[in-house]
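Sequence in, structure out. First:
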Amino acid sequence: MNKKKLKKQKNNKGIALLIAIFSMGLLTFFAMEVSYETNVEYVISSQKVNRLKAYYAAKSGAELSLLRILLYKKAVASFGDQLGENKSMLDPIWNFPFAWPPTKFIPKDDVTAITFDSLKKVEGESSMQATYITSIESEGGKIDINDLGSDIKALRESTKAQILKIFNMEVEYNDEFEAKWRNTNFEELLNNITDWIDENDESLNGGGEKSYYRDFLKDNPTEFIPPNRPLQSVDELHMVAGMKDDFYNLLKNRITVFGVKGININFANKDILMSLDEQIDEEVAKEIIRRRNTPEEGGLFKNEDDFLSFLDIKTSINTAEFNKGGIPLFFDNPYNFRIRSTGEFAKSTREIEVVTYDVENLVGRMADYLDKQDEEESGGSSGDESSGEGAGEDSSGDGAKKENETTGNDTSEKKDSDKNKKAIPKGRPRIVLWEEK
């Protein structure tokens, strides 16, 4: 009897041990799953926080850059006339890259020990743990792709010639591009871009514009393609008939949709300079850029005469034959800017791209273009015809006229002075693009 009880107790102990082992395994499994899920949630939450910190760092850089642009415009309006040809002294307000914290990007050997310690002290007082780096560039040194559909003939034709030259130069100097696309009619591609922008439905290549998008319209019957409006972004070029990735990659850094209706020589890069005229090769373009970056040799070009004089003296270019296409060239202060701000925190990165646009300057420039076009179409000013009227009239009223001119002289000069005086800008610059990546 005792043996049976002992055997039963041993069996119960074995079952209890198995139950205990199973329970421990189950609890271990649950603990590991909970730990894993918790770690995953923690990592996801941390990444969200890190991305949020990186975003606000990038936004801080963008807002600071907008402030720099505003301060630059205020400085130009306040002191530009006094500085005259030395207005480029104000450019560092906007054109140097800025980063936070400074000591992370500035080598210690490049500054004095006192300056470096001062920067470290300022950084220590800041509560920002993230970093950001910003850059500002002028949009005036790029080709406005929307000018292909401009109502101004000279602007439209010069833009087309300039972009065609970019393609032709790539075929000439890039063997890989030449082997792949040498038989391509780039003028047809530019016509497709123009058809995308202009207001009519007839293609410059013949036929209707919609015929080039027939397959797309079959699958998307509600879409209005081409839209017959200016391009809203450079990326929109991907949708134009005949546009390939190679063509887009060639153009994307040379064009903009926020241009200044011409090219600002003082901010154009090497490729844009070479597209102005066949006489400008890579060496001449480098000479132009070197002159711009060397204050001792004159720095930025003051006007077209200064630019042509430089080409005439320092290069082999025949200035009499230069820019036969009539590409509008500018040498004034930049007023359209592109800001790039990149924020980073704990390996999370966010980028913000902003474009500011000065509509007032653009309106004035367009008005000048239209006036010039009207004069060319009418064969010159008609005001000269009446210049001799009244030559034989009695001069008895001359004294009264002179008196009126004298009394009104001060008033007119004051009005002209007030008219030419630039208004000091207030508030944020006008933003036409705010893109977060």
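Second:
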Amino acid sequence: MANVAQLIRRQSSRELLRVPLDRLELRELQHRLLPTPSDQANAGPALYGTTNAAFVEDGGAPSSSSPSIIQQQHLNLGSSGTSNTASSTTRNRLTSLDRIDEKEEHINGVTGGTAGIITSSDDNKGVDVEGAAIVGQTPSGADPSSGDERENWDSKLSFLLATIGYAVGLGNVWRFPYLAQKNGGGAFLIPYAIMLAVEGLPIVFLELAIGQRLRKGAIGVWAQISPYLGGIGIASTVVSFNVALYYNTIIAWCLYYLFQSFQYPLPWSECPKEYFENGSYAINMECKQSSPTQYFWYRETLDISPDINTPQSFNWKITLCLFIAWLMAYLCMAKGIASSGKVVYITATFPYIVLIIFFVRGMTLHGMADGLTHLFTPKWEKLADPVVWLEAGTQIFFSLGLAFGGLIAFSSYNPVSNHCYRDAILVSLTNFFTSMFAAVVIFSVIGFKARMTYENCLETRNQTLVRAVLQELPVCDLQQELDNTASGTGLAFIICTEAVNQFPLAPLWSVLFFLMLLTLGIDSQFGTLEGVITSIVDLKIFPRVRKEILTATLCGFCCVLSIIFTHGAGNYIFTLFDDFSGNVPLLIIAFFECIAVSYFYGLDRFANDIELMTGSRPGIYWMICWKYLSPLTMLIIVIASFAKIIVEGSGYLAWVAEAGTTRHLDWPPWAQVLIAVLVLVSALWIPGIAIARMFGCQPLADEPPAWFPADELREFRKLTDVHHQSSTMEKLLFCIHDDGTEGLCFPTSSSAQSKANSP
């Protein structure tokens, strides 16, 4: 029985087995399926077609051991006339009634008292076998994915909603609008679309395809391509862990604002007042120096310290919200995609409902046209600024969630015959148009806020004109109000909340707005955590620990660590993580992903696999992007990012309570060390694993070949050519040699020798 399990897995590519079998089941099935020599003369053709081959040990003849009690009692089909019925159902599926328990006592109970375990079905559609679902050869045209033993999505819609929810996140709402108006308005769409075409779409396609093909998470995928490349997956997992650590803090802030929205008036609508015994009051000076929304954000929510070196007090309110956020993440992911796949029906669709509601409201606001004009008026001179192209490429990259491992993990649960090319196009374009739509919504609201502030300024100026000195008059400038658009937390928790204050029924709009941010954030958190959990499960680091326990442990550990973001200096540490834990490492990871597929796995081989999975071979454009354009673009962005840090320096905005404003401070030495650690702790895994393998160490176990029913896929997709014949252009562009190998664009010794030996 030594090779039985391997033989069965091999047969599973022909849809012979749907569920894994333990050794006791294999023993019983061997007795059931292999007739004794005395039976072979009268048994006719093999009962289950080619299934018997799975039980031939060491490539020899079937074992001649005596049949089991079950076989003696229930497989004497000749006398009952069911052999003809069974042979007529050779190519039909057989379904499982109940799995045989691993305990021998249960098997004895079955053999001793159970009758009719195998019976001929009345409608001649199959034979029921207790213990395992044995399936005949895949009928022509049947979906070959049914032989896959990996967990699958409940439906294609669940996968699409989960992937779109993962890709469409907070950055689409609070970063893209800011970048667009800052970097040329309508002109910014040109570099943004170009970067989407050469960087975003190709890598989304690559990650979805490689995950679907190799059926593993990020670590397993790259380790299977080459043991030397396992560090790519570990780097992705480390980055995903670091990002998930601080990303849930945003969800905690959204929860806090959501809870505060259920009151009237909104707590950030006016400055707090200190009342005295004589009935008089004084307005809080910090709030008076800034604004009610700024005061509520910096003092009431964050209780922020003057700099990163002085943590000050512990913020129990945000800590409680953080605990709720991690509890939500666990409850939604406890059973993997079986649970998160259902939650996404709400979390992936609700933000679009709220955006549509805000869009309708925004189109009726006074000042809407000012905001949209400011957003889309092209400033063509900005196209000559390399920073604009750098920020377009960076935004595309992080908006789609590339190199985190989330897309690979999600696609690994897809059927092997899924059309991943269509998915890549759909997800990428949905992300792009969501960013555009969100920008329209946000700037219609910002235009309203700027117009109201401008008109209030004019009114105040006219009222004080008689008694004021000319130099003391307030400056009223609509353009300046529009330019004062913030990004990130400043846009969500200060600018937008100030605009919502001026809406009728402001608490209702506030609840909708923060529910939208909450669902946008939790969706992205699903994908980020799934990249970590799937990699740990595939590595079998804790093989005896159930996935629910593993998820609970991970969420609990992250919850404890993320408390560092809840004290007075927590917002500054959050900024440090946000700026450095993902930016450069993710670009490096994606660069090596392209290198791994194009130069190690083989670009021609990868294209052949995609053709089998989707029915069509990827075009020349995609292959050029994977091998040349995408890695070159990411390399340029990495170099430019380092150059920008060196030239401009790096720091953070600290809140000055006395002045009611922020000031720029440089990172202290210990923070600079932490920045270096965040970058290196992820990126160094890539060369580290390769070097360890070179010196004989084996940090990662060698991955077994992935299940991939190539013949069935070829039949399912009705493909006639077994091997793709590379065109002359493909050979020139991708360095494909005449013998089918890939490499440098000159003949290798093997190919040169084969040419010399050819007639």
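Remark: The chain is about 60% helix and 5% strand.
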